[in-house]
Amino acid sequence: MQLFIDTEKACDEKAALEIVNQIESKPDTILGLATGSTPIGMYQRLVKKYQDGEIHFNHVRTFNLDEYVGLPKDHPCSYYYFMQENLFKAVDLDPEASSLPDGTAADPEKECLEYEKKLEAAGGIDLQVLGIGRNGHIGFNEPGTPFNAVTHVVPLTQSTIDANSRFFDNADQVPRRALSMGIKTIMHARKILLIAKGEDKADAVQKALQGPITPNVPASVLQLHPNVTVILDHAAAGKLKMQ
User: Is 78 exposed, middle or buried (0-12, 13-18, 19+ CB in 10 A)?
Assistant: First the structure.
């Protein structure tokens, strides 16, 4: 596991460079992408690098980690909308090359099965970007999720609903379920990039990286992955025990 700790801006640049290096080494890379506030700075830098001619996405395929159940694609809080606004429409990614779970599918369980099959047929993820929740979740895999879970329907915990309510007018508008890649799906990625920022993530980061490996802290499973890069700002790294 490689660990990088610096300022927030330096973390965004480091994360973007990890993506650039991956695409340069394998232009037809399959990227696993995350949403939320954490990766926005990384996406902004990737757009700038594309505009400057440093990177192209025309051979890249993407699979997103998750999506809310019940939100249409044009809803400002849907992850489809987030990805369009923060990356996809600003770069040369083929619209047909981006995949997200369909939160409006009539049969969410079937949608999860189809999404898992589509990912497997593509050959799996080369580089998976992850954030981490305050309770240690990755994707929408909440505490207690079995490590062998594949893409599935997830009932969101109250802590996750509360954390995500900042993106909605109020907590009552936050969907109560999501579709998410499972922990097993995430762990099959050939490389993982975990990004965390802010003091409110410090507890989860310490437990994930230095605590016992347990489903109670889903991100702790990353200790078992052979190729993980962790990028933290100083606040998120504040409770790590440095040797």
Answer: buried
